[in-house]
Amino acid sequence: NQTIYLRDYAPVPVTVTHVDLSFRLDPKATRVQARLTCARQGPGDMVLDGEGLKTISVAIDGTAITPRIDGDRMILTDLPDAFLLETEVEIAPQDNTALSGLYMSNGMYCTQCEAEGFRRITWMLDRPDVMATYDVEIEADLPVLLSNGDEKGAGRWHDPWPKPTYLFALVAGNLVATSDSFTTSEGRDVALNVWVRPGDEGRTSYALDALKRSMLWDEKVYGRAYDLSVFNIVAVDDFNMGAMENKGLNVFNSRYVLASPETATDADYANIERIVAHEYFHNWTGNRITCRDWFQLCLKEGLTVFRDQQFSQDARGFATQRIGDIMTLRARQFREDAGPLAHPVRPESFVEINNFYTATIYEKGAEVIGMLRTLVGAEGYDAGVALYFERHDGQACTIEDWLACFAEATGRDLSQFMLWYRQAGTPRLTVTEDFNNGVYTLDLKQTVPDTPGQTNKSPMTLPLAYGLLDATGTEIRPTDVFEMTDRAARLSFNLPEKPVLSMLRGFSAPVVLEFAQSDADRLILLAHDTDPFTRWEAGRALAKDRLMRAVAEGAGFDAGWIDAVATLATDADADPAFRALALALPSEDDLAASLHGSGVVPDPDAIYIARRAASHAIATRLASDLPGLRAACATPGAYDPRAEDAGKRSLSATLLRLQTLLDGGAAARAAYDAADNMTDRMAAFTCVLDAGDTEVAARFEADWQHDRLVMDKWFMAQVAHAAPNDAVDVASKLTAHRDFDPGNPNRFRAVIGGLTAGNPAGFHRADGAGYAFLADWLLRLDKANPQTTARMSTAFDSWRRFDADRQDLIRTQLDRMAGTEGLSRDLGEMVARMLA
Ligand code: B3K
Ligand code: ZN
Predict the structure, then answer these.
(1) Of ligand 1's atoms, which has the minimum distance to the CA of residue 301?
(2) Contact, 291 vs 547, CB < 8 A?
(3) Cα–Cα distance between 334 and 75 in angstroms, integer?
(4) Angle, CA 685 vertex, CA 682 and CA 686 arms, to 5°
(5) Average pLDDT over residues 579-596
(6) Fewer CB atoms inside 10 A, N or C side of the chain?
């Protein structure tokens, strides 16, 4: 397994400018004819990629040749300056269990080409810097035949916009559309279709609506209009990730398209809205301007995540959206950055590119853009983005190209900022404060930790947004941004009394903040800060401090803290969504990471017990208020997924979880019976499971066994909400259920991820049963679907946090996988990195 390096990038000597494809679809023997218009742009051979293809014929300018085929490469030598390369191959979509290339899902044909799936369809220069126009012809005895671009007749498509192979798509099947239309700001009429299996039409309206809102938003906020006469979205049941931005033909995991109040939760609705927007926004940031090579992946992903976050803030409210995004960043990216899988936002090498669709590329990539915007200001950002679109439309670009637009548009030197793309690891910012003789002094220090392959790092540019409050909670200094560029800095203020520091407002830089702020100051921030993030963060810090001491020293929970939590819970003037966020305790994984970071070996059982005890103390304090508080969350009328109602349901669910700790599940059982939507039903269902009552699972199953997406929830909830000691057995039993199909990534993730992510104390069971269970399933699925397997293996990436016994048990499983004959490149790379 070869390592590929950024420094080895070289353009192709011979490129392809037009691709003409014809498909004769057959489950076992699909024929693909390709006619590639080729042009020389430098000296050298043409090396095409092909994987698992049965090559029928190859011809250059009409003359058949016998090319040199060396494994997955076809090498053509002595080529003219311009020529037509014709190939015919045979492939078997039905046997394609990796879900990469052309495969079948529930009788329909579909494709997934990013990153390197196109080479599993036909011989081609399968790399993003080769951009071509496409003509596609599909022959099959199926009613719906789709590809990219505009339709030119039954099963014939033309895409006028040059694109790399990874954006190619084909779909064929018995599908039905929900349709609408959109007129762009440039006056183009666009037909919009959401294609689903017959029977699912009733669940498409939300996705369609989200698409229209996304199109309008991108015109208004970024000045970007759509550029074809049709935009198709297809829902597919078997899909390795969330969705894919193929030009004019987005393919989605059905869980991110289909929604009805009866079957989807508020979280599902929010995800659908976000992902529909994300894939649509790629049309400009990814498709019209794409990546030169896969090392530049964050060029399209970081930027597009940033854009979808902006969109969701506009659609759902800034505060809760931002806090939620920060929670995701810390849960996934900070964890990745602190372990053996840490890598820069722009990596410098990889073995398997599919292993780099990570939280670092996506979420940290988005934060980097947010920092850039903070540094150059909203106007500077708009000017830089405008220059980027103008200068690079139709090109395959690099991070240097992107940053150059901002440097030019704003006159700023961004060379130090570039370190955010080059240096891995989450910077630590240490803050100490001092007040003396009317002078308030802040000492700031930054360090960037060592990560695999990187030591002795340089200081980064940190945009630090902060404000000051007085002892009554009145803001005495509104938000200011200090640009920290050195390892240490000092800020001083002349003030009559010691202020309360509100540091890192809006989480203006993705750092770990080390600041031993007093409880009194944190309580003032929690009650009064003007910035929603720092306000929430103050409550978080109070909770984390208590929970860490409870785990490490067996400390109890002080009435002062419980009172503060109760005050917020009962504050009818505060936004319900914010109250729900503020009531949620730091996750088990978050606590394990923080304990490890502070030099304490985290005990997963002790963490579980401490969190439960804290919840119990809060529940007891609020006991008599809980029914009334929940009643106040009622949302009259029919279910509406809008954020305002979702916030109330979220608070209600949080309160029900507390109530369950006191009443053994009585209120939750009643709520389950009363639920008229899936959000309330799932909240009640998981509470009943938390109470140890598993009979409810049989009822749920009887009601929903016909529905794949709802059953995914059923599978996951039982594992995630099992008592830690039972979780492995529950998961293992569910893998024997007649509806457990490991070949379906959603179902596999529901059960295996339900354990590894949903039930940490269960996964880390002291006897290692959870580790063996995960490794068994990874080895089993690896042969069929390496991408999903490799992704699930990241559950082991935090292994060095734990005690020696657990480390031994995990190492045994990692070694066992590493020693397995025929391990995929995907899983092989992950295991090797985790063991290194
Ligand atoms: N670009 C795709 C992800 C492709 C993953 C390939 N393993 C979806 C997205 O980020 O929008
Ligand atoms: Zn994306």
Answers:
(1) 10
(2) no
(3) 43
(4) 85
(5) 97
(6) C
Strand ranges across the sheet with 189-196: 176-183, 189-196, 230-236, 249-253, 243-244
What are the distances in angstroms from CA 263 to CA 645, 675, 676, 755? 17, 12, 10, 23
User: Do residues 547 and 611 lie in contact, with contact meaning Cβ atoms separated by under 8 Å?
Assistant: yes
Contacts of 141 (CB under 8 A, 6+ apart): none
Residue 190 and residue 229: Cα distance in Å, rounded?
4
Q: Atom 2 of ligand 1 has which residue's CA nearest to it?
A: 244
Which is nearest to 524 in space by CA: 508, 535, 511?
535
Q: In testing the pocket of ligand 1, which one of 244, 276, 284, 287 has its CB within 8 Å of the most ligand atoms? A: 244
Supply the residues annotated as catalytic: 279
Q: How far is the CA of 239 from the centre of ligand 2 (A)?
A: 15
Q: In this model, does residue 61 exceed pLDDT 90? A: yes
Query: Which residues are registered as beta bridge partners of 512?
Result: 428
pTM (predicted TM-score): 0.99
> For the sheet containing 73-76, what is the strand order?
46-49, 73-76, 68-70
Ligand 1 neighbours by CB, cut-off 6 Å? 114-115, 241, 243-245, 278-279, 282, 301, 354, 357, 787
Cα 87 from Cα 590, distance rounded (Å)? 53
Distance from residue 719's CA to the centre of ligand 1 (Å): 28
Distance in Å, CA 330 to ligand 2 centroid: 19
Model confidence over 765-777: pLDDT tens digits? 999 999 999 999 9
- Centroid of ligand 1 to alpha carbon of 122 (angstroms): 21
Phi, psi of 508 (to 5 degrees): -70, -15
β 512-514/428-436 pair status:
parallel
Give me the helices (H) in 282-317, please: 297-316
Q: Tens of pLDDT along 296-312? A: 999 999 999 999 999 99
Q: Which of 699, 705, 785 has the alpha carbon at shortest distance from 742?
A: 785
In this structure, what token pair is assigned to residue 469?
A: 């409050």
What protein residues have CB closer than 5 angstroms to ion ligand 2?
Answer: 301, 304
Residues 754 and 716: beta-carbon distance below 8 Å: yes
Residue nearest to atom 3 of ligand 1 (CA): 244
Residues contacting 421, CB < 8 A, separation 6+: 298, 344, 345, 346, 368, 399
Complex ipTM, two decimals? Answer: 0.99
Give the residue, out of 282, 357, 789, with the most ligand 1 atoms within 8 A of its beta carbon, to mutate for a pocket test: 357
DSSP state of 80: -
Residue with CA nearest ligand 1 atom 9: 244
Picking from 782, 773, 757, the residue whose alpha carbon sits closest to that of residue 810 is 773
